[in-house]
Amino acid sequence: MGPPNAPELFGAFLFMPMTNIKNIIFDLGGVLLDIDTSKTNMAFEQLGINNFKNNYALHKMDSVFENLETGKISEAAFYDSMRTLGKTPLSDQQIRDAWNALLLDFRTESLAFLEQLSARHNLYLLSNTNSIHFTAFSQRFTAGAEKKNFNDYFTKAYYSHVIGLRKPDEEIYSFVLEDAGIKAGETLFIDDLAINIEGAKSVGIKTHHLLPNERIEKLQFS
């Protein structure tokens, strides 16, 4: 047995304590969309930017990446920063392709599971992303799915580059609660990064840290 209120494993499913949960907030990358940052690191290295991975990581970023994710700089400014970092005259397209290399496939079974959950819960999305990635994964989704718009799965989707805030800052979770008109104690947040989980906990939101071998459709919400 785990500690009080801890999830318990039963067969292939993880049963979640869902008492009084009315709302579920999902992360995107690593939860609904597979990503692999090593592919972007490798792509930039192949372009001659060998120090890229020292400046970029999902849990800790250089100010250029944070500013892109909070909409403080334009795509053009980002491309110029990458050219400066690599000290090489790369085209916007080369940089865009390398930057988007980390985006893999949507988890179709997980998306299908959202349809079931939406009958019982209000669903929201909260993602640290940027306009370049947003365009890329939106186009990929539209090309391979029945729904025309990825956001249709949710009551509302919140993207860091649109709202000017990013996880794990406490302010972004408070913003979502207030904007959506929902209560922290009635809300579950699912993310694949522990640091983002801690940010949500700080404002009283219930959480589940989704591990690499877990999928949301294997979480049996009781």
Structural class: alpha/beta
The CATH architecture of the largest domain would be 3-Layer(aba) Sandwich
Q: What is the N-to-C succession of helices and strands? A: EEEEHHHHHEHEHEHHEHEE
Question: How many beta-strand elements?
Answer: 10
CATH topology of the largest domain: Rossmann fold
The percent of residues in helical segments reads 40-55%
CATH homology superfamily name of the largest domain: HAD superfamily/HAD-like
Count of discrete alpha- or pi-helical segments spanning 4 or more residues: 10
Mean pLDDT figure: 87
Q: What is the straight-line distance between the termini? A: 18 Å
Strand line-up of the largest beta sheet: 7-6-3-8-9
Please give a structural write-up.
This protein is of the alpha/beta class and 222 residues long. The chain folds into 2 domains: 8-35 and 106-221, 3-Layer(aba) Sandwich (Rossmann fold), CATH 3.40.50.1000; 38-100, DNA polymerase, domain 1. The chain is built from 10 helices and 10 strands. The chain has helices at 37-46, 52-55, 63-69, 75-86, 92-100, 108-117, 131-144, 160-163, 170-180, 194-201, and strands at 8-10, 13-16, 23-26, 33-35, 103-106, 122-127, 156-159, 187-191, 206-209, 219-221. The strands form 3 sheets. It has a 5-stranded parallel β-sheet with strand order 7-6-3-8-9. It has a 3-stranded mixed β-sheet with strand order 1-2-10, with no helix packed on it. Helix 10 links the parallel strand 8 (187-191) and strand 9 (206-209). It is globular and about 55 Å long. Residues 1-15 have low confidence and may be disordered.
